[in-house]
Specification:
Number of helices: 2
Order of helices and strands: EEEEEEEHEEEHE
Strand content: 25-35%
CATH class of the largest domain: Alpha Beta
Oligomer: single chain
Number of strands: 11
Largest sheet: 8 strands, mixed
């Protein structure tokens, strides 16, 4: 961030009085800009032993495979967001989504909430953000063509725990480290 969204003056990056972390501060109007993490919701949607994946039609990672996922919207629950993303990206309806993975990516200020659910009827086709959708058996996951480390971790957990009762262990929780970026 270089300029204040309130008055368009240059901002400084420092620790404001009474705080403990650096923030973008506008000395002209006094606005302190808090940049909070983004929440990404997604769904590991199953149908008859297969998982639904989408080939991205947008950047970043155009042409690579992912689970249906995207930014959580205002006024929706995380589970509703995961179901919405599944509909938007794969034109598929998922039922009974339950929290499956919580993945922190602190260097890019993202928190992933991945749900697991069952497709209502197995039907799917690409939405505007997907070039292709398909159901794959775990043995056929295109590991070398996955778009994001978060999806690699989620799908690997799915393969590693196939058939296991996860109700007593709760969702996968993991921090994924990436190279740090300097704030703008």
């Amino acid at each position: 961030m270089n300029y204040c969204s309130q008055c368009a003056q240059a901002v400084d990056f420092r620790i404001p009085e009474g705080d403990t972390l650096p923030r973008h501060i506008c000395d002209h109007c006094g606005t302190i800009h808090y940049i909070n993490p983004k929440i990404i919701v997604g769904c590991l949607a199953e149908w008859e032993g297969q998982v639904l994946i989408c080939k991205r039609a947008i950047e970043p990672r155009h042409g690579l495979w992912t689970l249906p996922a995207g930014f959580m919207e205002r006024e929706e629950t995380a589970a509703e967001g995961a179901a919405r993303e599944t509909m938007e990206e794969a034109q598929a309806t998922v039922r009974d989504p339950s929290l499956y993975a919580v993945l922190d990516v602190p260097q890019i200020s993202q928190l992933y909430l991945i749900y697991r659910g069952t497709l209502v009827d197995g039907a799917h086709h690409p939405g505007p953000e997907s070039l292709e959708t398909k159901l794959v058996h775990p043995a056929d996951i295109p590991w070398e063509s996955l778009a994001f480390p978060t999806m690699q971790v989620t799908l690997q957990h799915y393969v590693d725990t196939a058939g296991a009762d996860l109700t007593s262990t709760g969702p996968l929780t993991k921090t994924i480290r990436r190279p740090a970026r300097k704030p703008r």
